[in-house]
Amino acid sequence: MVDFRPIGYVIGLLVAALGISMLIPMFVDLAQDNDHAGTFLEVALITLLIGGLMALASSNSVAGGMNLQQIFLLTTGVWVVLPFFGALPFMWGDLGAGFTDAYFEAMSGLTTTGSTVFSGLDALPSGLLVWRSMLQWFGGIGIIVVAMAFLPELRVGGMQIFRSEGFDTDGKVLPRAAEIASRISIIYLVLTFACAVAYMVAGMPLFEAANHAMTTIATGGFSTRDQSFGSFRGAPEYVAVVFMILASLPFVRYVQILAGSSKPLLRDTQVRAFLAALCTIVALVAIHRLLVQGSAVHAALREALFNITSIMTGTGYASTNYQLWGAFPVTVFFLVGLIGGCAGSTSCSVKVFRYQILLKAVANQIRRIQSPHGVYQLKYAGRRLSEDVLSSVMVFLTMFLVTLGVVSVLLSATGLDLVTSVSGAATAIANVGPGLGTMIGPEGNFAGLSGVAKWILLSAMLVGRLELLVVFVLFTSRFWRA
Q: Which of 18, 338, 383, 453 is the most exposed place for a label (fewest CB within 10 A)?
């Protein structure tokens, strides 16, 4: 039988920490003499109390550590429980959202998806805008720790090939997570501060700069404006591009740079592939706009660079309605959202390294067919790929496509059209943010969907953010018998 106490202890501590963090938007509202400050204080106290009691009740079981079964439950449990408490400020006070909408927004925030059900953002209390940004910021650093500490140990989706990079704690998951969190936190804070300063230099007001810095580094995409980056065209777009790319690179490389070695970043094959793919796709879309639509050179390049980078990294900002660019760019936007950034970053979706391994496996199989008696070894980044890694990647890619199909069918069963269903499923599983179509496209939001459709999508956000199998394994009988 599973001992849930260690899981409850860690989740309790995180819930309590979330409650303490609610004091930040409370002070923001107090500074602006906003009545919503009282709501944040009430929710903070309740969240802190519940989290503290949960941790206290489970504290006598911590010494024994956790087994892999408990780690699976902990990883999923954190992303199920924290959005519940994160949703409370949206339900109480001025906004008065229903539970479904509030939980959807909080789940979208913590999974750094960026899909929103709220409109009239320009008129929301400042504290609520800060809270939305903070949820994404927390989710960004949280997923880095999960990707670098938990997923390699759980052998999910081929992540085990990054098991020993930059950190060595003898395979003990929780000490490894603590070490990663302590090192990454400094880098994450520095990047966020630098991004905020750059936004202000580019002309953004302080409040907008701070909020967008948090959601940029988290590659989340929540904005303080209904028009997203349509309100900040020009220099802020270039700033966003730089920091979206930086946030999509492996954070372990930044740790190694601080240790005095920049060579691992320069030699990282997935970094080179990510940048090459991004530049190629941007060039294709910009050229299409120049030749087919006759757009001005600077506008075509800037808009293509910003919006392609935003969707490919899973950030989800939009500076214009790119659905008006024609069928080719729209198709490109749908596909690039399924690429993602590098492993060990705040970026989401499939990740570049899996496509690299897939292409290597295909090329290797072609060689086998051409020369059946030859001996071929699959290598990635100079290391031999084991069958375990290869099968994990193939299972992940298969489950990604199957899940995309299932979620699309479920959404269509709620009455949504084909474009909305398929793009909604893709943007939720890949944690991108905007979909396609008039309802959930770059100029819309998810408010008009039915309650059932929202629960399907927020479940897909959770599954996609945790690399699919971390959640799916919980529904197998063998897992509970282990």
A: 383
Distance of CA 421 to the CA centre of its chain: 21
Q: What SS3 class is residue 43? A: helix
Greatest CA separation found in the chain?
Answer: 77
Q: Are 403 and 313 in contact (CB under 8 A)?
A: no
In angstroms, rounded to a whole number, what is the distance separating the alpha carbons of residues 18 and 134? 10
What are 407's two structure tokens?
């979620």
CB neighbours of residue 409 within 10 Å: 12
- Quote the CA–CA distance of 21 and 7 in Å, as a whole number: 21
The b/e string for 156-193 (b: 16+ C-beta within 10 A; e otherwise) is: bbbbbbbbebbbeeeeebbebbebbbebbeebbeebbe
- E strand or H helix that includes residue 440: none
Q: How many CB atoms lie within 10 A of CB 103?
A: 22
Task: Compute the distance between CA of residue 394 and CA of residue 408 in angstroms, rounded to an integer.
Answer: 21
If you ran DSSP here, which 8-state letter would residue 379 be given? Answer: E
Q: Please report which confidence band the pLDDT of residue 169 belongs to, taking 50, 70 and 90 as the band edges.
A: very low
DSSP letter for 468, please. T
Q: pLDDT tens digits for 386-416?
A: 888 899 999 999 999 999 999 999 999 999 9
Does the pLDDT at position 373 exceed 80?
no
Instruction: Give the span between the Cα atoms of 397 and 401, in whole angstroms.
Output: 6
pTM for the full model? 0.94
b/e map 311-344, b = 16+ CB within 10 Å: bbbbbbbbbbebbebeeebbebbbebbbbbbbbb
The C-alpha atoms of residue 7 and residue 349 are separated, in whole angstroms, by: 27
How far is it, in rounded angstroms, from Cα 268 to Cα 248?
13
Interacting residues of 202 by C-beta distance below 8 A, sequence separation 6+: 234, 235, 236, 238, 239
Per-residue model confidence as pLDDT tens digits over 410-446: 999 999 999 999 999 999 999 999 999 999 999 999 9
Write the CB contacts of 122 (distance below 8 Å, at least 6 apart in sequence).
Answer: 224, 225, 226
For residue 39, which of 90, 77, 93 has the smallest C-alpha distance? 93
CB atoms within 10 A of CB 418: 11
**Structure token pair of residue 477:** 């009988």
Phi, psi of 384 (to 5 degrees): -70, 135
